[in-house]
């Protein structure tokens, strides 16, 4: 069967292999014809008679010596190669570098993976770089996991070689034991590399050094073996009756009467062509240890006219470095996305896919996919016993192939699981993992996605390194991408289509950042992305990983930051996902009192296991590094912090100290924040934490987040607005209570998706009560936004809120954008845009959000009139902003508000301005209002304002002349120069009293 169209196209472009064989251009075949899915039925049986080979040449070489085969493979197939050339000869290898001993060099090789000889050269196909080689030292940078250190081969095949002479008969001890054959046939063999591939065979009754080659194939009529072109350091002698260098594998074993899987076996006697040896004899003791034959196969099936090249999976060594597995096992493998999962790599010039998965409790794991008919017998994996991991390099397959892992559990069951580290998945409801063509970690620079956000990334890094990120405006637009906008007939728009529509809208609305509800792959859209299965893959329904990169890139080029929701608290319990991954609890706690969240119907990650910690930390790192994400909002932090979160007595287990805190989860969150801030300066982390846990944003003794969602403010404010006006005076403290705890943390002020779904109604519904007119609801919603954006904290508004959508959010349909064309809603949208524009340009509204002196009430106790007024400050008195909010429908004329500065205050925004479809109560935008002497509520001056009903006013303090303003700024800078620790944050830094104070 021919390769898939996608693989053929890829081979023609990215994976161009320049090597040629004697028949012309080499073909990297995908063995799609080698296996059938069991449901397709079994082919007919056939037996083959062993055919005696032609007599071999009587004399191969006058001067040969035997290769030392005395060093067998270990249980996982590690092969280490050292020099057998005599010192002083032309072919002698250089001494170990840095003065290290030969034993130390050998130990270093044992710690890495023997994927190629140190003398081999690898032709790397365009777009991909090789895998780590045997010279890699234990301190290798994880970013260079994909690189192979191939030493240039100084002398090629015309000099020192091994000669492999096919034997007439196979030694009896070369056969696979019947029990092992049975396990292989049932896809239950725990160590397939001990059986398949090339192995040494002991021949105690002779001095011959013999190796045997065993390969799997399906429904082939002819199999030939030859050295791998351009790589192998051994040769086959030509037969007497032919000039061909190919040798047929003549012996086969038929599996239990079925020809579906057939084992082909050939034995070879090994010599070396060393001219210094006078005769054939036993190998010297210091000669090479066992060296496997690097071979390739030419196979021809029943319906094939010409043979095709097949690379035997079990002829390759390990491709996953041991040092990286040790990091993974330690719980601190941040680059685990390069280590685990499926990656297109090259080994000795052969392109294929390296698979690696963690499944510590099972008997065996096989890679199954489209290319092998999802037959678990086709590609059993090698187990790295000490790490509980399984890996396999399969040559000849490429991007776009669907795959999974067939696992045989200790309880005897067999099932197929997804790859937890897959970077692409099928579109739900299908569940297969996909070998990604967008894996930039293993591509050359020219073949990777070409980012164009360098200016944004440099600015972000500088803000992080100078600790100025918290001074920047951060107005967040929360988006559920699948339902933000749909195409005709409800069609999902792709990431690229959404980019063309989302970016202009966000810019026009003056948001600085977008926050996407979880985009990690999830099977059930009704979970909104919070029940994940693929933490390393963007949601496939909207496009490929490169499509998502385009969306982020486009937003960055428009100076819009990108946050995503990240979910390390729990995961879905679909049988093909992470739950009971290898037949036993792996990713979740074993005890259901710890490992299950019954209210949500999800499983809880086991933060006690280091491998799970590497999985979660690596996922966060993956999104920041691969997709240039600017911030992570960690979901459900409360459920991570408390072991008894939303659980009754008897449904949870206390920690080792008898308390209810999950100590392992706490340390994970601390490490996550430390890693993010250390590796990605300027990245912002947020916690959705609904309790009074102290120190969520404390970088020293707390969890280390940059901000915490103020869910208390959101609940208090919305519940206040739902009260009838006559009852609001009784709950006025809901508007002002935040002042008691505001200084304890750094905050996000959310009006999020959680409050406009599941029967809670829309924000417009909450801005009133039964019988409230639509016009009053719109006015109240404008005042709510004015109150939110004026308060300390970064404002967040969920999509649809900017147009006052009438219905609550539905995840299966688009925002009702047609409502935005209505006059009142259109004016609401303009009001939000102007508010956010003011927020971005006035430093008092954002630069001092986290400082105690930045906020002061000027009127907080007027519960009868439902009015609050407060002052925002930053650095200089002329930056002050006064915000007045009236939450009653009653307008108040000449309402007195105390202020600290006398002079002419400018009315920047009036929600009742004609521009916003208001009734023009009071002055319009841009007007000036003079203070009077006498003051109010302890403030030295007073403003007499016309405050509209359900309205909001923004005013700016009097402005000095330009020269005076410059003088004040320079004096302030000089006064701060001697202070080594920088500006004090516990006191108001205003440097001058009001301009009328001395007049």
Automatic annotation (TrEMBL):
It holds the Pfam family CBM_48. Its EC number is 2.4.1.18. GO terms for cellular component: cytosol. This is 1,4-alpha-glucan branching enzyme. Pathway: Glycan biosynthesis; glycogen biosynthesis. Residues 478-846 form the Glycosyl hydrolase family 13 catalytic domain. GO terms for biological process: glycogen biosynthetic process. It comes from the Eukaryota. Residues 1-10, 27-39, 98-111, 985-999 have a biased composition (Polar residues). GO terms for molecular function: 1,4-alpha-glucan branching enzyme activity; cation binding; hydrolase activity, hydrolyzing O-glycosyl compounds. It is an enzyme of class 2 (transferase). Residues 1-57, 71-142, 964-999 are annotated as: Disordered. The keyword Cell membrane does not apply. Belongs to the glycosyl hydrolase 13 family. GlgB subfamily. It catalyses: Transfers a segment of a (1->4)-alpha-D-glucan chain to a primary hydroxy group in a similar glucan chain. Signal peptide: none annotated. CDD domains: AmyAc_Glg_BE (cd11322), E_set_GBE_prok_N (cd02855). Keywords: Carbohydrate metabolism, Glycogen biosynthesis, Glycogen metabolism, Transferase. Residues 17-26, 964-984 have a biased composition (Basic and acidic residues).
């Amino acid at each position: 069967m021919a390769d898939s169209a996608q693989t053929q196209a890829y081979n023609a472009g990215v994976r161009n292999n320049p090597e040629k064989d004697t028949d012309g251009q080499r073909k990297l075949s995908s063995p799609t014809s080698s296996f059938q899915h069991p449901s397709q039925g079994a082919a007919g049986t056939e037996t083959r008679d062993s055919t005696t080979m032609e007599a071999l040449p009587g004399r191969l070489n006058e001067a040969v010596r035997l290769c030392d085969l005395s060093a067998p493979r270990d249980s996982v197939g590690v092969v280490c190669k050292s020099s057998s050339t005599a010192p002083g000869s032309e072919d002698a290898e250089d001494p170990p570098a840095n003065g290290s001993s030969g034993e130390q060099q050998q130990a270093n090789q044992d710690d890495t993976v023997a994927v190629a000889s140190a003398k081999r050269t690898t032709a790397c196909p365009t777009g991909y770089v090789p895998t780590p080689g045997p010279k890699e030292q234990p301190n290798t940078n994880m970013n260079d996991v994909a690189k192979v250190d191939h030493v240039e081969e100084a002398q090629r095949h015309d000099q020192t070689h091994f000669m492999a002479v096919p034997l007439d008969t196979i030694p009896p001890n070369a056969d696979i034991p019947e029990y092992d054959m049975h396990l292989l046939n049932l896809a239950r063999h725990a160590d397939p590399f001990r059986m398949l591939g090339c192995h040494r065979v002991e021949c105690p009754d002779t001095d011959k050094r013999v190796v045997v080659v065993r390969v799997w194939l399906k429904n082939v009529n002819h199999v030939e073996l030859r050295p791998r072109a351009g790589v192998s350091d051994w040769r086959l002698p030509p037969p007497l009756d032919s000039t061909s260098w190919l040798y047929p594998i003549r012996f086969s074993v038929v599996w239990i009467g079925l020809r579906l899987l057939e084992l082909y076996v050939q034995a070879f006697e090994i010599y070396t062509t060393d001219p210094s040896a006078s005769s054939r004899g036993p190998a010297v003791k210091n000669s090479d240890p066992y060296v496997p034959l690097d071979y390739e196969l030419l196979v021809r099936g029943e319906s094939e006219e010409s043979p095709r090249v097949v690379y035997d999976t079990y002829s390759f060594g390990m491709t996953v470095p041991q040092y990286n597995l040790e990091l993974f096992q330690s719980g601190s493998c941040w680059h685990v996305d390069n280590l685990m999962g499926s990656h297109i790599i090259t080994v000795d010039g052969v392109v294929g896919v390296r698979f690696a998965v963690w499944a510590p409790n099972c008997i065996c794991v096989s890679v199954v996919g489209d290319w092998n008919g999802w037959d678990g017998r086709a590609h059993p994996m090698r187990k790295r016993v000490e790490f509980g991991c399984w890996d396999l390099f399969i040559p000849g397959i490429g991007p776009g192939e669907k795959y999974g892992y067939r696992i045989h559990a200790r309880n005897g069951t067999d099932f197929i699981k997804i790859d937890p580290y897959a970077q692409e998945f099928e579109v739900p409801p299908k569940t297969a993992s996909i070998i990604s063509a967008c894996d930039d970690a293993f591509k050359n620079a020219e073949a990777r996605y070409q980012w164009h956000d360098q200016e944004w990334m440099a600015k972000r890094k500088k803000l992080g390194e100078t600790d100025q990120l918290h001074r920047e405006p951060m107005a967040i637009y929360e988006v559920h991408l699948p339902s933000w906008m749909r195409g005709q007939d409800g069609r999902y728009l792709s990431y690229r289509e959404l980019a063309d529509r989302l970016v202009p809208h966000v810019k026009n609305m003056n948001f600085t950042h977008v926050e996407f509800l979880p985009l990690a792959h999830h099977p059930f859209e009704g979970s909104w992305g919070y029940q994940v299965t693929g933490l390393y893959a963007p949601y496939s329904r909207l496009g490929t990983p490169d499509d998502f990169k385009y969306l982020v890139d486009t937003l960055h080029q428009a100076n819009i930051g990108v946050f995503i929701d990240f979910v390390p608290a729990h995961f879905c319990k679909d049988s093909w996902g992470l739950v009971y991954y290898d037949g036993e609890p792996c990713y979740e706690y074993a005890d259901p009192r710890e490992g299950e969240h019954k209210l949500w119907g999800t499983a809880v990650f086991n933060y006690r296991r280091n491998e799970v910690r590497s999985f979660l930390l690596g996922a966060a790192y993956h999104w920041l590094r691969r997709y240039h994400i600017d911030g992570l909002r960690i979901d459900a932090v409360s459920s991570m912090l408390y072991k008894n979160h939303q659980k009754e007595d008897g449904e949870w287990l206390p920690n080792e100290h008898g308390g209810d805190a999950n100590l392992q989860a706490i340390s994970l969150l601390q490490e996550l924040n430390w890693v993010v801030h250390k590796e990605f300066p300027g990245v912002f982390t947020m916690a959705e934490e609904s309790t009074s846990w102290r120190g969520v944003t404390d970088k020293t003794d707390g969890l280390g987040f940059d901000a915490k969602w103020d869910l208390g403010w959101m609940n208090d404010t919305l519940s206040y607005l739902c009260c009838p006006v006559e009852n609001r005076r009784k709950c006025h403290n809901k508007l002002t209570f935040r002042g008691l705890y505001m200084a304890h943390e750094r905050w996000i002020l959310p009006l999020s998706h959680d409050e406009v779904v599941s029967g809670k109604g829309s924000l417009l519904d909450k801005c009133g009560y039964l019988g409230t007119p639509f016009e009053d609801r719109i006015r109240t919603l404008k005042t709510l936004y004015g109150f939110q954006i004026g308060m300390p904290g970064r404002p967040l508004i969920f999509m649809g809120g900017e147009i006052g959508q009438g219905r609550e959010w539905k995840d299966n349909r688009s925002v009702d954008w047609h409502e935005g064309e209505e006059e009142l809603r259109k004016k609401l949208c303009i009001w939000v845009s102007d508010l956010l524009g003011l927020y971005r340009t006035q430093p008092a509204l954002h630069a001092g959000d986290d400082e105690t002196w930045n906020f002061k009430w000027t009127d907080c106790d007027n519960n009868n009139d439902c009015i609050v007024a407060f002052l925002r400050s930053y650095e200089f008195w002329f930056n002050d902003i006064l915000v007045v909010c009236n939450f009653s429908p009653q307008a108040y004329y000449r309402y007195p508000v105390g202020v600290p500065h006398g002079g002419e205050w400018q009315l920047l925004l009036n929600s009742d301005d004609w521009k916003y479809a208001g009734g023009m109560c009071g002055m319009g935008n841009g007007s000036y209002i003079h203070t009077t002497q006498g003051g109010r509520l302890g403030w030295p001056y007073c403003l007499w304002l016309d405050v509209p009903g359900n309205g909001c006013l923004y005013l700016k303090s009097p402005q000095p002349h330009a020269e005076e303003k410059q003088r004040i700024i320079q004096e302030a800078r000089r006064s701060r120069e001697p202070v080594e620790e920088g500006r004090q944050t516990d006191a108001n830094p205003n440097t001058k009293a009001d301009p009328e104070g001395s007049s």
